[in-house]
Amino acid sequence: MAYTLDIFRYDQATDEVPHRDRVEITDLPDTVTVLDALEHAKAEIDGSISFRRSCRSAICGSCSMNINGTTGLACKTPVKSVLKADRSVQVDPMPNFQPMKDLVVHMDPFWDKYTRLKPYLQPADRDEDHERERRVSPEDMHKLVAVANCVMCATCYALCPVVSVDPSFAGPAAIAYAYRFIEDVRDSKRKERAAQISDDYLWLCAHCYACSYCPKHVDPHDDIIAVKRATIEEGLTDAPGPRHALVVAKTVKQTGMLHETEVIQGTVGRFNIVGLFKTAPFGMRLALAGKMPPLFLKPVPKVDEIRTIFDTLEAPTL
């Protein structure tokens, strides 16, 4: 099978701007992966092509890169599944990272956010106090199995639109690992971990589900929701993010609808005069456009059924 690898090329030590090289591949089987093709190009055509790889089995997470606009593991991506109409495959470094050399990126921001979470078990007692290892029930362990499959490939971080506009956001992988320890019954730092991840801008998550595209099917999005709930359970609600979530839940439970006027007040803070004053121009623009939300809402018919859902789920509200 013949095709072309369209490769991003850049060396931070010598290049001012990146360029692209097109490498023709003609003598590999139809079953090869993108990583196989890159290995062949490096070994047989241009030894200067740089990329990370190790296990070749979707275990180490090293070969994450952007393939035809979608980030994923090159070792898990068959070439024939991504061939474009012109029989080319475009490979680029992961977005949201600074390129170092060709497809190799600086991973420091990703690892820094992971390290801040202290990603290791912190039990209340000492190992020496136990004759055997600390036991965990199958039910408690089941909650941690999915996130334990994370190989820290950073695909979710590269796909996250919030990271692209605000690099201070912890990112999906770090939050998923916070969940892994927050929900571990052996750990004693639940509130401290919830506070740390909250300080790392947990509530900036826009719930766009981009991180659901995970090569290991971890689906960090569900873990992000669980961590947000944990911060509320730990009483970490004095910030716009949790206040917004709680007041939205409150108005929907009370009326069956989103009461926008109350949501703004609840999110900013009813006694935050300066903050409320800053929202005044927005309110005036809404009024001039005839889109000012009503000050009071009449509950929808059968609102009791909606309230029953909240009570059944034990959903927290203001």
List keywords for this structure.
318 residues, alpha+beta, 7 strands, 40% helix, globular
| Biggest β-sheet strands, sense, barrel | 5 strands, mixed
Question: Which structural class do you get from the secondary structure elements?
Answer: alpha+beta
For the terminal residues, how far apart are their CA atoms?
61 Å
Main sheet: which strands, in order across? Answer: 2-1-5-3-4
What's the pLDDT, averaged over the residues? 94
From the alpha carbons, calculate the radius of gyration and give it in angstroms: 25 Å
Helix fraction, binned, reads 25-40%
**Quick one: overall form?**
globular
Q: Kindly estimate the percentage of residues that lie in beta strands according to DSSP.
A: 5-15%
What's the order of the H and E elements? EEHEEEEEHHHHHHHHHHHH
Q: Specify the oligomeric state.
A: single chain
Uncertain runs: none
Strand segment tally: 7
Task: Give the count of helical stretches.
Answer: 13
Q: What would you say this structure looks like, in words?
A:
- With 318 residues, this protein is α+β, with helices and mostly antiparallel strands.
- Helices cover 40% and strands 10% of the residues.
- The protein contains 13 helices and 7 strands.
- It has helices at 34-44, 108-116, 138-148, 155-159, 161-165, 172-182, 190-199, 220-233, 240-255, 260-268, 273-278, 280-288, 303-313; strands spanning 3-9, 19-25, 64-67, 70-73, 88-92, 99-101, 104-105.
- The strands form 2 sheets. The chain has a 5-stranded mixed beta sheet. Strands 6-7 form a two-stranded antiparallel ribbon.
- A hairpin with a 2-residue loop joins β6 and β7.
- α3 runs antiparallel to α6 (172-182), α6 (172-182) packs across α8 (220-233) and α9 packs antiparallel against α10.
- The longest helix is centred in the last third of the chain and has 16 residues, at 240-255.
- The radius of gyration is 25 Å and the shape is globular.
- The mean pLDDT is 94.
